[in-house]
């Protein structure tokens, strides 16, 4: 094996490259005055699997959208690869976003849907073909290139959506509750596949979820957020070695981490405990 | 083997056919039984004979009406889509122009037709303009709604991938609009026929002859009621043919993906 089973938190503790994204006291106040997100400081390192979790209204989606530059901060700023957003998309600085819904084009076949980012980028068909095939193979849909989205199950549609994100070879993959609408069995399978992909492709992921189990299973770091106003409440490092398998899910450690996270989340949902804010 | 009455083909074809035969038979029988004079209400067989006898003149009239219908339909589609694209480009333009589109729609063509027929010397052109006015609005409103009905998630995705305006239009807005566009086609095709016939009536009363409506008017003057019915029958069949053609087009374009065209699998 060329890949040593290395402790991931060690990798993060001694970063060899600058952080991929830095959120520098960025906040978001909407036009009607609601403070969706109090000033947040967060830095996302290369190779991490960072999960944002919290009660609804805690600003986790807002934070993800800030990172994706879908919205702009009211105050403070963000840096991508130590620079502005304009240089995102260059070689080695690709960003991809997976939405809550598959958001596929119903009139286009699976292959065309997965090829969309390349088409929009002006990549030729000849060059795009093998890359699309490879991306679909990664999500286990190599035989479905000619299907229409409506012919697929919910889980398979989500896989197409992930393939579409992977086709650009992203360096930073942002996912907003991608498996929230799926049944638990399908969700567990997709989680395991996603973790595998992240490990093999050395991706950097920022993942938003409601599920404590999902957060513990996937993440190298979990950011627990609290609501009103949305803010970072606690951070949990999970140094469980990779690759994580089914046995991790049933281990005592997994249960302990889940219980800890669950306690924090319960505390985070309590009103008026801003003094604990980190 | 399912019983015949449950088979899809039986229900879709044989059942309406049986109703038609029963209606025609009842009609024929009733006219015979109560000795209804032909000039009041002809029997189906009278209409059929008239259709055979007057076939050359009736088909000539049909060709005239259909050519007006098709020209008006084409104009309505081209103009409607063009106007819809303009509306989608700018809210300001839409806000300023939409009330006039509505004005055009709500003014009855019978009321405007005499004016147009007086203003435009060429009868054919005048009738085409009238029919276009009737058929235009559904194309404008449907295509506009279609071009706007884009999945916001996909819009975000296109924006994140820095899509050019032209490729967003080509790859996202136009495909999203297609189901609405085809629904508009079905309505407009029927309306252009109605518009053509109504305009012909107005022109016919003014003595400028053309088309099936004129045949109906003339037959009425001459108390040739079977011929009147025969002309009516041709208009109805032309309408059905148009509708079927549009349904077929829609199936061809959307059959692969859109819910409206996908047969329910049971």
Q: How do the helices and strands line up, and which of them pair or pack?
A:
The complex is a heterodimer of chains A (278) and B (266).
Chain A: H1 8-13, E1 21-29, E2 35-44, E3 49-53, H2 60-67, E4 75-80, E5 95-98, H3 110-120, H4 125-138, H5 154-166, E6 172-176, H6 184-201, E7 204-209, H7 212-218, E8 221-226, E9 231-237, H8 246-249, H9 252-269
Parallel strand pairs in A: 3-7, 3-8, 5-6, 6-7
Antiparallel strand pairs in A: 1-2, 1-4, 8-9
Chain B: H1 8-33, H2 44-53, H3 55-89, H4 91-106, H5 109-119, H6 123-148, H7 152-160, H8 165-205, H9 211-221, H10 225-254
Short description:
The complex is a heterodimer of chains A (278) and B (266). Chain A is of the alpha/beta class and 278 residues long.
Q: Key terms for this structure?
A:
heterodimer; A: 278 residues; alpha/beta; Rossmann fold; 2 domains; 6-stranded mixed β-sheet; 3-stranded antiparallel β-sheet; 9 helices; disordered C terminus; B: 266 residues; mainly alpha; 10 helices; 81% helix; 0% strand
Provide a descriptive summary of the structure in words.
The complex is a heterodimer of chains A (278) and B (266). Chain A has 278 residues and is an alpha/beta fold. Helix content of chain A is 36%, strand content 21%. Chain A folds into 2 domains: 161 residues, P-loop containing nucleotide triphosphate hydrolases (Rossmann fold); 65 residues, no CATH class. In chain A, a hairpin with a 5-residue loop joins β1 and β2. In chain A, α3 packs across α4 and α3 packs parallel to α5. The longest helix of chain A is centred in the C-terminal third of the chain and has 18 residues. The N terminus and C terminus of chain A are likely disordered. Chain B is an all-alpha fold and 266 residues long. Helix content of chain B is 81%, strand content 0%. Chain B is built from 10 helices and no strands. At the A-B interface, α3 of A face α7 and α8 of B.
């Amino acid at each position: 094996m060329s890949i040593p089973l290395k402790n991931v938190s060690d990798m993060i503790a001694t970063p060899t490259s600058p952080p991929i994204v830095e959120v520098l006291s960025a906040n978001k106040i909407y036009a009607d005055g609601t403070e969706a997100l109090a000033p947040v400081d967060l830095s996302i390192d290369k190779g991490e699997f960072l999960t944002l979790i919290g009660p609804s209204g805690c600003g986790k989606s807002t934070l993800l959208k800030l990172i994706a530059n879908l919205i702009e901060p009211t105050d403070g700023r963000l840096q991508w690869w130590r620079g502005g957003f304009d240089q995102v998309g260059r070689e080695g600085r690709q960003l991809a976003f997976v939405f809550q819904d598959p958001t596929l084009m119903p009139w286009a076949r699976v292959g065309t849907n997965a090829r969309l980012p390349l088409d929009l980028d002006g990549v030729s068909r000849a060059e795009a073909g093998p890359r699309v095939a490879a991306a679909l193979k990664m999500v286990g849909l190599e035989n479905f290139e000619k299907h229409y989205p409506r012919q697929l199950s919910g889980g398979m549609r989500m896989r197409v959506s992930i393939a579409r994100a992977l086709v650009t070879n992203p360096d930073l993959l942002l996912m907003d509750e991608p498996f929230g609408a799926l049944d638990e069995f399908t969700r567990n399978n997709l989680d395991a596949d996603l973790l595998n992909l992240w490990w093999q492709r050395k991706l950097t992921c920022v993942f938003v979820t409601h599920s404590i189990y999902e957060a513990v299973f996937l993440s190298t770091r979990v950011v627990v957020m609290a609501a009103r106003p949305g803010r970072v409440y606690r951070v949990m490092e999970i140094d469980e070695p990779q690759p994580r398998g089914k046995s991790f899910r049933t281990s005592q450690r997994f249960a302990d981490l889940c219980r800890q996270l669950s306690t924090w989340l319960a505390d985070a949902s309590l009103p008026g405990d801003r003094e604990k804010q980190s | 083997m399912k019983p015949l009455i449950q088979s899809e083909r039986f229900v879709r074809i044989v059942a309406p056919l049986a109703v038609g035969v029963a209606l025609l038979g009842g009609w024929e029988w009733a006219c015979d039984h109560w000795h209804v004079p032909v000039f009041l209400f002809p029997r189906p067989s009278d209409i059929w004979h008239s259709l055979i006898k007057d076939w050359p003149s009736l088909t000539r009239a049909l060709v005239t009406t259909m050519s007006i219908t098709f020209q008006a339909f084409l104009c309505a589609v081209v103009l409607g889509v063009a106007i819809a694209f303009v509306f989608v480009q700018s809210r300001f333009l839409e806000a300023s122009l939409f009330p006039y589109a509505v004005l055009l729609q709500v003014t009855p063509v019978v009321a405007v037709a005499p004016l147009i027929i007086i203003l435009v010397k060429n009868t054919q052109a005048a009738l085409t303009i009238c029919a276009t006015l009737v058929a235009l609005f559904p194309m404008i409103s449907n295509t506009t709604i279609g071009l706007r009905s884009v999945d916001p998630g996909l819009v975000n995705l296109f924006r994140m991938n820095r899509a050019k305006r032209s490729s967003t239009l080509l790859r996202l807005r136009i495909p999203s609009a297609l189901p609405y566009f085809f629904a508009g086609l079905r309505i407009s095709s029927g309306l252009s026929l109605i518009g053509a016939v109504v305009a012909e009536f107005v022109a016919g009363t003014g003595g400028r002859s053309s088309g099936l409506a004129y045949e109906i008017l003339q037959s009425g003057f001459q108390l040739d009621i079977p011929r009147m019915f025969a002309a009516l029958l041709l208009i109805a069949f032309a309408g059905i043919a148009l509708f079927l053609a549009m349904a077929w087009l829609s199936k061809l374009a959307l059959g692969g993906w859109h819910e409206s065209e996908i047969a329910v699998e049971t």
